[in-house]
TrEMBL record:
Source organism per UniProt: Pseudooceanicola spongiae
Principal subcellular localization: membrane
Lineage of source species: Bacteria, Pseudomonadati, Pseudomonadota, Alphaproteobacteria, Rhodobacterales
Gene Ontology CC annotations of this record: plasma membrane
Cellular localization per UniProt: Cell membrane
Protein's recorded name: Trimeric intracellular cation channel family protein
Length: 196
Protein backbone atom coordinates (compact mmCIF):
# COMPACT_ATOMS: atom_id res chain seq x y z
CA UNK A 1 0.00 0.00 0.00
CA UNK A 2 2.90 2.34 0.75
CA UNK A 3 4.29 1.97 -2.79
CA UNK A 4 0.85 2.43 -4.31
CA UNK A 5 0.37 5.60 -2.25
CA UNK A 6 3.80 6.79 -3.39
CA UNK A 7 2.85 6.31 -7.04
CA UNK A 8 -0.57 7.96 -6.66
CA UNK A 9 0.81 10.99 -4.80
CA UNK A 10 3.54 11.18 -7.45
CA UNK A 11 0.82 11.41 -10.10
CA UNK A 12 -0.91 14.23 -8.21
CA UNK A 13 2.34 16.17 -7.85
CA UNK A 14 3.21 15.71 -11.51
CA UNK A 15 -0.28 16.76 -12.65
CA UNK A 16 0.00 19.96 -10.63
CA UNK A 17 3.40 20.58 -12.23
CA UNK A 18 1.90 20.17 -15.72
CA UNK A 19 -0.88 22.63 -14.83
CA UNK A 20 1.79 25.10 -13.69
CA UNK A 21 3.61 24.61 -17.03
CA UNK A 22 6.79 23.21 -15.47
CA UNK A 23 9.35 21.39 -17.60
CA UNK A 24 10.22 17.68 -17.34
CA UNK A 25 12.64 18.29 -14.48
CA UNK A 26 10.02 20.31 -12.58
CA UNK A 27 7.44 17.57 -13.14
CA UNK A 28 9.82 14.92 -11.76
CA UNK A 29 10.74 17.08 -8.75
CA UNK A 30 7.11 17.76 -7.83
CA UNK A 31 6.29 14.09 -8.32
CA UNK A 32 9.17 13.05 -6.05
CA UNK A 33 8.36 15.64 -3.37
CA UNK A 34 4.63 14.85 -3.26
CA UNK A 35 5.34 11.12 -3.19
CA UNK A 36 8.08 10.95 -0.57
CA UNK A 37 8.08 13.98 1.76
CA UNK A 38 5.28 12.79 4.06
CA UNK A 39 6.80 9.33 4.46
CA UNK A 40 10.26 10.78 5.03
CA UNK A 41 8.93 13.04 7.77
CA UNK A 42 7.12 10.07 9.34
CA UNK A 43 10.25 7.94 9.30
CA UNK A 44 12.40 10.66 10.86
CA UNK A 45 9.89 11.26 13.65
CA UNK A 46 9.53 7.59 14.60
CA UNK A 47 13.25 6.84 14.30
CA UNK A 48 13.03 4.64 11.20
CA UNK A 49 16.22 5.96 9.64
CA UNK A 50 17.28 6.27 6.97
CA UNK A 51 13.86 7.11 5.58
CA UNK A 52 12.29 4.28 3.57
CA UNK A 53 12.53 6.13 0.26
CA UNK A 54 16.29 6.54 0.74
CA UNK A 55 17.00 2.92 1.59
CA UNK A 56 14.48 1.26 -0.75
CA UNK A 57 14.94 2.41 -4.34
CA UNK A 58 11.43 1.24 -5.28
CA UNK A 59 10.07 4.48 -3.79
CA UNK A 60 12.25 6.58 -6.11
CA UNK A 61 11.24 4.42 -9.06
CA UNK A 62 7.51 4.68 -8.22
CA UNK A 63 7.68 8.46 -7.81
CA UNK A 64 9.73 9.04 -10.96
CA UNK A 65 7.61 6.61 -12.96
CA UNK A 66 4.54 8.60 -11.94
CA UNK A 67 6.22 11.75 -13.25
CA UNK A 68 7.07 10.09 -16.57
CA UNK A 69 3.54 8.70 -16.91
CA UNK A 70 2.11 12.19 -16.42
CA UNK A 71 4.66 13.80 -18.76
CA UNK A 72 3.54 11.55 -21.62
CA UNK A 73 -0.08 10.90 -20.61
CA UNK A 74 -1.30 14.08 -18.90
CA UNK A 75 -3.87 14.78 -21.62
CA UNK A 76 -5.61 11.45 -20.96
CA UNK A 77 -5.41 11.89 -17.17
CA UNK A 78 -6.80 15.41 -17.47
CA UNK A 79 -9.97 14.01 -19.06
CA UNK A 80 -10.89 12.52 -15.68
CA UNK A 81 -13.10 14.63 -13.44
CA UNK A 82 -10.86 16.70 -11.19
CA UNK A 83 -7.84 14.40 -11.63
CA UNK A 84 -5.48 16.11 -9.19
CA UNK A 85 -8.10 16.10 -6.43
CA UNK A 86 -9.08 12.46 -6.99
CA UNK A 87 -5.45 11.27 -7.12
CA UNK A 88 -4.65 13.38 -4.07
CA UNK A 89 -7.59 11.88 -2.17
CA UNK A 90 -6.48 8.34 -3.00
CA UNK A 91 -2.92 9.09 -1.90
CA UNK A 92 -4.25 10.76 1.24
CA UNK A 93 -6.17 7.66 2.28
CA UNK A 94 -3.33 5.26 1.49
CA UNK A 95 -0.69 7.30 3.32
CA UNK A 96 -2.90 7.92 6.35
CA UNK A 97 -3.27 4.20 6.98
CA UNK A 98 0.31 3.20 6.17
CA UNK A 99 1.63 6.00 8.36
CA UNK A 100 -0.52 4.90 11.29
CA UNK A 101 0.42 1.24 10.75
CA UNK A 102 4.13 2.00 10.73
CA UNK A 103 3.80 4.15 13.84
CA UNK A 104 2.03 1.30 15.64
CA UNK A 105 4.77 -1.09 14.49
CA UNK A 106 7.25 1.24 16.20
CA UNK A 107 5.23 1.02 19.43
CA UNK A 108 3.75 4.51 19.38
CA UNK A 109 0.55 4.95 21.36
CA UNK A 110 -2.83 5.55 19.72
CA UNK A 111 -2.62 9.36 19.65
CA UNK A 112 0.93 9.31 18.32
CA UNK A 113 -0.02 6.80 15.61
CA UNK A 114 -2.98 8.94 14.52
CA UNK A 115 -0.81 12.06 14.40
CA UNK A 116 1.86 10.27 12.37
CA UNK A 117 -0.83 8.96 9.99
CA UNK A 118 -2.16 12.47 9.39
CA UNK A 119 1.35 13.89 8.98
CA UNK A 120 2.30 11.15 6.51
CA UNK A 121 -0.83 11.82 4.48
CA UNK A 122 -0.57 15.61 4.44
CA UNK A 123 3.19 16.28 4.46
CA UNK A 124 4.05 15.61 0.83
CA UNK A 125 1.04 17.47 -0.53
CA UNK A 126 1.76 20.47 1.67
CA UNK A 127 5.37 20.71 0.47
CA UNK A 128 4.22 20.19 -3.14
CA UNK A 129 1.80 23.12 -2.83
CA UNK A 130 4.40 25.37 -1.23
CA UNK A 131 6.84 24.70 -4.09
CA UNK A 132 4.31 26.07 -6.60
CA UNK A 133 3.40 29.02 -4.35
CA UNK A 134 -0.04 27.76 -3.27
CA UNK A 135 -1.47 27.73 0.22
CA UNK A 136 -1.33 24.04 1.18
CA UNK A 137 -4.69 22.31 0.74
CA UNK A 138 -4.48 20.96 4.26
CA UNK A 139 -4.90 24.51 5.55
CA UNK A 140 -7.69 25.85 3.40
CA UNK A 141 -9.64 23.29 1.39
CA UNK A 142 -12.63 21.14 2.14
CA UNK A 143 -12.23 18.14 4.42
CA UNK A 144 -8.55 17.14 4.04
CA UNK A 145 -6.68 16.54 7.28
CA UNK A 146 -9.92 15.31 8.87
CA UNK A 147 -10.21 12.65 6.17
CA UNK A 148 -6.64 11.55 6.90
CA UNK A 149 -7.48 11.51 10.60
CA UNK A 150 -10.44 9.21 9.89
CA UNK A 151 -8.23 6.74 8.01
CA UNK A 152 -5.58 6.71 10.73
CA UNK A 153 -8.23 6.41 13.45
CA UNK A 154 -9.72 3.33 11.80
CA UNK A 155 -6.28 1.69 11.73
CA UNK A 156 -5.68 2.47 15.40
CA UNK A 157 -9.13 1.24 16.45
CA UNK A 158 -8.73 -1.90 14.35
CA UNK A 159 -5.32 -2.57 15.85
CA UNK A 160 -6.70 -2.20 19.36
CA UNK A 161 -9.64 -4.48 18.58
CA UNK A 162 -7.46 -7.13 16.95
CA UNK A 163 -9.03 -6.80 13.49
CA UNK A 164 -7.06 -8.12 10.48
CA UNK A 165 -4.48 -5.46 9.54
CA UNK A 166 -5.03 -5.71 5.78
CA UNK A 167 -8.78 -5.40 5.93
CA UNK A 168 -8.55 -2.54 8.42
CA UNK A 169 -6.09 -0.70 6.18
CA UNK A 170 -8.28 -1.10 3.08
CA UNK A 171 -11.35 0.13 4.99
CA UNK A 172 -9.46 3.08 6.46
CA UNK A 173 -7.96 4.13 3.12
CA UNK A 174 -11.28 3.74 1.29
CA UNK A 175 -13.29 5.72 3.84
CA UNK A 176 -10.69 8.51 4.11
CA UNK A 177 -10.45 8.85 0.31
CA UNK A 178 -14.23 8.71 -0.13
CA UNK A 179 -14.84 11.35 2.55
CA UNK A 180 -12.32 13.66 0.88
CA UNK A 181 -13.86 13.21 -2.57
CA UNK A 182 -17.46 13.58 -1.37
CA UNK A 183 -16.54 16.68 0.65
CA UNK A 184 -15.22 18.36 -2.48
CA UNK A 185 -18.27 17.53 -4.58
CA UNK A 186 -20.67 18.53 -1.78
CA UNK A 187 -18.72 21.64 -0.78
CA UNK A 188 -18.31 20.53 2.84
CA UNK A 189 -15.78 22.61 4.72
CA UNK A 190 -14.30 22.90 8.16
CA UNK A 191 -15.73 26.02 9.87
CA UNK A 192 -13.64 29.18 9.50
CA UNK A 193 -13.29 32.16 11.78
CA UNK A 194 -15.59 34.98 10.81
CA UNK A 195 -13.94 38.19 9.69
CA UNK A 196 -15.26 41.39 11.20
Amino acid sequence: MDLLGTFVFGLSGAMLAVRRDLDLFGILVLSLVAATAGGALRDMLIGATPAAFLSDQRYFVAALLAGVVVFFGHAQIEKLTRPVMVLDALGLGLFAVTGAQKALAYDLGPMGAIWIGVLTACGGGALRDVLVAEVPRVLCEEIYALAALLGALIVVLGHGAGWPAGLTAVCGAALASAWRIVSVYRGWQVPRARKR
